[in-house]
Amino acid sequence: MLFDPAHRLWLLRGPTTSYAVRLAEDDSVRHVHWGAPLTLAQATQVAERAAPAASSFEAVAGVDELAVEGGARFGPPSLLVRFADGTRAVEWRYAGHDADGEQLRIHLRDRHYPLRVTLHYRMPAGTDVIERWTTVENPDDGAAITILRCDSAAWAVPHRPAYRMSHLTGGWNSEFQLRRTEVPVAETVLTSRRGITSHHANPWLAVDDGTAGEEHGEVWSTALAWSGSWRITLHRDPFGRTTWTGGFGHEGLSWSLAPGETLQTPVFAGLYTAGGFGSASRAWHGYVRGHVLPHPGETRPVLYNSWEATGFNVDEAGQLALAARAAALGVELFVTDDGWFGDRNSERAGLGDWVPNRVRFPAGLGPLAAQVRRLGMRFGLWVEPEMVNPDSDLYRAHPDWVLHMANRDRTEMRHQLVLNLARPDAAEWAHAWLDRLVREHQIDFLKWDANRPFTEAGWPGHADPDRLWIGHTRAVYRIMDRLRADHPGLRIEACAGGGGRADLGILARTDQVWASDNTDPVDRIGIQHGFSQLYPAQVMGAWVTDSPNPATARRTPLRFRFHVAMAGALGIGGDLTAWTADELKEAAELVAAYKEARTVIQHGTPFRLRGDGTLTAVEYRHENEHVVLAWCPSRRFGHQPAPLHLAAVQADAVYRNRDTGATHPGALLLYSGLPLDLPPGDHASALVRLQRLS
Ligand code: DGJ
Which of 40, 86, 235, 357 has the fewest C-beta atoms lying within 10 Å of its C-beta? Predict the structure, then answer.
């Protein structure tokens, strides 16, 4: 970090990028530069070129790093407050800065009111990612301050004729659909008002000037590390300024900051890359591995999950039958899904009563866990700690523990309500039973689910009920953190009815994410493509299930299902008791093939290769090893997929196919393409492993 006191300008530098801010005359912090590397002197020159206001209607020149209400500011504010006397505008006074190796903190205070704010910037060593967050403090000498909005950060990109945004949208069974659209001259809001990250939008956004491609062009992208409601507002004004501000909570919430209290936002991380969307994804993946995930070096086990095979029809004999077949396939972790506890015979009852169902598991979970281990697998269990069925002993004992509002219905979704884990008693209860469960059975893996959004999110009797929107998510984090600290071998999969909770916040305390309940391999290609924009293959849970697929009724060959699921952390979720001997044999061979390839897939660097629209493929490189997965869902008569040109090979090197022994000059792989042994017809796929020989 460099500081120019004369110009009151700070410069942060990563390996291939730099970021500069300065203090304006009114002591607000202004954006200067985010992009290619600049020297301090160059950044100062950029700062001096700030465009003058266009008219008397546009008084503030430049872009605030954390815009407030007050002065001639008319864009979306990042920080909105109301003081006890009704004043809303903020006027800053610079209160110093401090910095250590990676972090810069710029301190501001209001000129009149007891409000202090710190803008935090951190560039973790070796990355170009800038982590930004904000702390707001009400020093211990005034009245409460109402916080109407407190974003983590606002971002700005250079003035260009046009910008395009890439974002992820979808719904249940169709998460992570990548959309690219021109940024309109307007305010565009990406948000979740659901109390979870959501299937419908993911808190990631990439902006380019419309010319970037997979492997070329400047891309500015940001990702919010938060697993509850959130909002990102992108603003392009008629004069070409393009900015966005984002943070936790959605519009309309407020909370009271008591004297002596501090509010800290989650991290909103930003990344500039000059090598297209592919290089942005690779840099994000590197950051997730290096600075977010708890155990990035671990190879994710091949898991089996019982959900699609049994639904709620879970019992000891059925699970043992599945476990025996799973072990024979080479599965390393056996996970019993929903249905093992309470009166959980359907989605109507039992949620909240976390003791094994006495009819289905007469001797508890002990015998199942022991047999799974004897079969050489680890044992995992599904839980949904944030939810309750009204038809449960828990709800009958604590009807006031759920989110609810006086004089309002309690809207049920999937026959369940949301527990208010912002309540210390409810959170303590959740931690206690989870801790007991994990301890008693040495559970290796929890699949932590959350199958509905918040509604009637009230907290009757609490003076500041909107706090629950933040407090609930923080309680989830605290429980996970405590469990992990007390049970170092425990691994956690994040799930919210499929991919409703994938974000950098949850990934800091989980090991993988269930990306979607849609296990149809054709649909999955698109879901996985969107997921891979930000999140690495290592964290993407992907199962092979039955054909026809239960969600889409599409029939696909086993090999195609496996090859698509191999692009992440492979799992199997089909009803193995119904698979034929031939299918089981082929599945065992495919599991073995995945194990040969997974170091490269899970720990390597991905290159999304696109063919002619018929063929989609990803190449992973790890040291001298390459894995290519190629999928061809359908093709018309006479149309062969165009050759698949690899991206991550050297022209002057030679590559050997690890399975066939054939050798390929790198130049041909780059310019002529990789020969693919695709079977005829629809749903064709290939897995190719290459080793660089020289
Ligand atoms: C939703 C999850 O995404 C499924 O995999 C399964 O765990 C069900 N919940 C169980 O209720």
Answer: 86
The helix-helix angle for 581-603 and 316-329 (nearest 10°) equals: 70
CB under 6 Å to ligand 1: residues? 307, 337-338, 382, 449, 451, 495, 497-498, 514, 517
| Angle separating helix axes 424-441 and 468-486, nearest 10 degrees | 20
Distance CA 47, CA 344 (A): 63
What is the 151 CA–ligand 1 centroid distance (Å)? 32
**Coil, strand, or helix at residue 268?**
strand
Which pLDDT tens digit goes with each residue over 548-602?
999 999 999 999 999 999 999 999 999 999 999 999 999 999 999 999 999 999 9
CA distance linking residue 87 with residue 503, whole number of Å: 36
Summarised one tens digit per residue, pLDDT across range 31-54 is 999 999 999 999 999 998 876 677
The Cβ-side half-sphere exposure at 294, using a 13 Å CA radius, reads 19
525 Cα–ligand 1 center, Å = 20
Ligand 1 geometric centre to CA of 677 (Å) = 36
Structure tokens at 208: 């380019």
Q: How far apart are CA 469 and CA 418, in angstroms?
A: 12
Residue nearest atom 9 in ligand 1 by C-alpha distance = 497
In the numeric block, which tokens belong to residue 394? Answer: 């828990």
For residue 105, what are its two tokens? 């903190």
In angstroms, rounded to a whole number, what is the distance separating the alpha carbons of residues 476 and 496? 13
